[in-house]
């Protein structure tokens, strides 16, 4: 063989080894990982990609709620009708496409990673379980964004939210700084403190849930949505090949694994924990803060003509129930009236029959 043939063979073998490495390591870019899931919520293992905008629908379906459009995604199978998880915890990690989470139920590629929120799921929980005051917690420490509803207002009122509060929490007793192997991470750098503050928030959430275990025993489902962007800041400042980024990735993977196990155990093995890893979102998310509980002065504040809201997706179900119930009652009234009109009192009625017999005896 000539030198040219040897070089061609070497190039082919190198390409084959690279392809095998990609297949065996499962490199798919951004991903959705199901960290914990009860037995009655069935996730199938496979490489079915799911769009980022469908994540709220997936969360709603895992909790037993209906969605406006059917989710044609084979990763989630239909489960029992009368069993639903007690909680759903979604953690969004920005700045990394995947994390080494060894003990997970399933992992799927994430395509079209657009920003999303779980506001629709939170509104559904509030409308269906308003009397039970479920826990709804949506938190993004980097943006100092916090949204709490129901019992979360009382349980997580002491949770540090702003970066100043979280940094003060890092210097108190029970801080994660005493137990984490920081290695190349610094306690004085701003980006490092942002990452450590997010780890501290995860630790404080599980600590508060352990203190208030009664939350996991009620009949209303709970919703947790956490967005972490500390890795994104570390990647922007140090680079993905830096020791700080590698150490932070390893720390976050172990912390998320323990966080999922703790929440899953606190809810009696009846909680779904998902982790969405995305390197960067394709479009910025503009979010307007509001409260579901605030009273509205007009029926539709977005319309200057005081128009009513459009019917939601539950209108068809309610309409069919009312329509067919009215038709059944109307038919029942017609049948009863017809039988009464054509009834022979002397033959069909026991009252008139006994009266006629008494008259004849007299």
UniProtKB/TrEMBL annotation:
Keywords for this protein: Cell membrane, Cleavage on pair of basic residues, Endoplasmic reticulum, Membrane, Receptor, Signal, Transmembrane, Transmembrane helix
Any single GO BP term: positive regulation of Wnt signaling pathway
Highest taxon listed in the record's lineage: Eukaryota
Localization: Cell projection, Dendritic spine membrane; Cytoplasmic vesicle, Autophagosome membrane; Cytoplasmic vesicle, Clathrin-coated vesicle membrane; Cytoplasmic vesicle, Secretory vesicle, Synaptic vesicle membrane
Main subcellular location: membrane
Keyword Transmembrane helix (UniProt): yes
Bilayer disposition of the protein: Single-pass type I membrane protein
InterPro entries noted in UniProt: Renin_r_C, Renin_rcpt, RENR_N
The keyword Cell membrane appears for this protein: yes
Residues covered by the Renin receptor-like C-terminal transmembrane spanning segment domain: 287-362
GO cellular component: autophagosome membrane; clathrin-coated vesicle membrane; dendritic spine membrane; endoplasmic reticulum membrane; external side of plasma membrane; lysosomal membrane; synaptic vesicle membrane
Transmembrane segments: 315-341
Renin receptor N-terminal domain segment(s): 30-279
Sample GO molecular function, one term: signaling receptor activity
Function: Multifunctional protein which functions as a renin, prorenin cellular receptor and is involved in the assembly of the lysosomal proton-transporting V-type ATPase (V-ATPase) and the acidification of the endo-lysosomal system. May mediate renin-dependent cellular responses by activating ERK1 and ERK2. By increasing the catalytic efficiency of renin in AGT/angiotensinogen conversion to angiotensin I, may also play a role in the renin-angiotensin system (RAS).
Complex formation: Interacts with renin. Accessory component of the multisubunit proton-transporting vacuolar (V)-ATPase protein pump. Interacts (via N-terminus) with ATP6AP1 (via N-terminus). Interacts with ATP6V0D1; ATP6V0D1 is a V-ATPase complex subunit and the interaction promotes V-ATPase complex assembly. Interacts with TMEM9; TMEM9 is a V-ATPase assembly regulator and the interaction induces the interaction with ATP6V0D1. Interacts with VMA21 (via N-terminus); VMA21 is a V-ATPase accessory component.
Record's protein name: Renin receptor
Protein source organism: Cyclopterus lumpus (Lumpsucker)
Lineage: Eukaryota, Metazoa, Chordata, Craniata, Vertebrata
Gene giving rise to this polypeptide: atp6ap2
């Amino acid at each position: 063989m000539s030198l040219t043939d040897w070089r061609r063979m070497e190039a082919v073998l190198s390409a084959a080894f690279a392809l095998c490495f990609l297949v065996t390591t499962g490199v798919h870019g951004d991903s959705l990982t199901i960290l914990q899931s009860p037995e009655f919520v069935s996730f199938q293992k496979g490489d079915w990609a799911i769009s980022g905008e469908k994540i709220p629908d997936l969360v709603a379906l895992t909790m037993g709620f209906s969605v406006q459009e059917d989710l044609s995604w084979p990763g989630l199978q239909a489960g029992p009708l009368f069993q639903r998880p007690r909680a759903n915890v979604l953690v969004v990690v920005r700045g990394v496409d995947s994390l080494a989470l060894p003990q997970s139920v399933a992992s799927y590629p994430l395509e079209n990673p657009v920003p999303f929120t779980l506001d629709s799921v939170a509104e559904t929980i509030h409308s269906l379980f308003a009397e039970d005051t479920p826990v709804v917690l949506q938190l993004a420490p980097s943006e100092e964004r916090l949204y709490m509803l129901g019992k979360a207002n009382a349980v997580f009122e002491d949770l540090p939210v702003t970066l100043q509060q979280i940094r003060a929490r890092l210097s108190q007793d029970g801080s994660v700084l005493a137990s984490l192997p920081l290695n190349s991470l610094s306690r004085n750098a701003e980006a490092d403190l942002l990452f450590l503050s997010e780890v501290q928030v995860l630790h404080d959430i599980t600590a508060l849930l352990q203190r208030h275990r009664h939350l996991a025993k009620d009949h209303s489902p709970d919703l947790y949505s956490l967005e972490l962007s500390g890795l994104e800041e570390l990647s922007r400042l140090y680079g993905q090949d830096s020791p700080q980024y590698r150490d932070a990735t390893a720390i976050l993977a172990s912390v998320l694994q323990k966080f999922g196990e703790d929440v899953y155990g606190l809810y009696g093995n009846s909680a779904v924990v998902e982790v969405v890893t995305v390197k960067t979102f394709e479009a910025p998310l503009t979010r307007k803060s509001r409260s579901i509980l605030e009273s509205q002065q007009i029926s539709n504040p977005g319309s200057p003509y005081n128009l009513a809201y459009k019917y939601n997706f539950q209108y068809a179900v309610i309409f069919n129930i009312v329509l067919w119930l009215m038709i059944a009652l109307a038919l029942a009234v017609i049948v009863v009236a017809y039988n009464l009109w054509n009834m022979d009192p002397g033959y069909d009625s026991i009252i008139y029959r006994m009266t006629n017999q008494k008259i004849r005896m007299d």
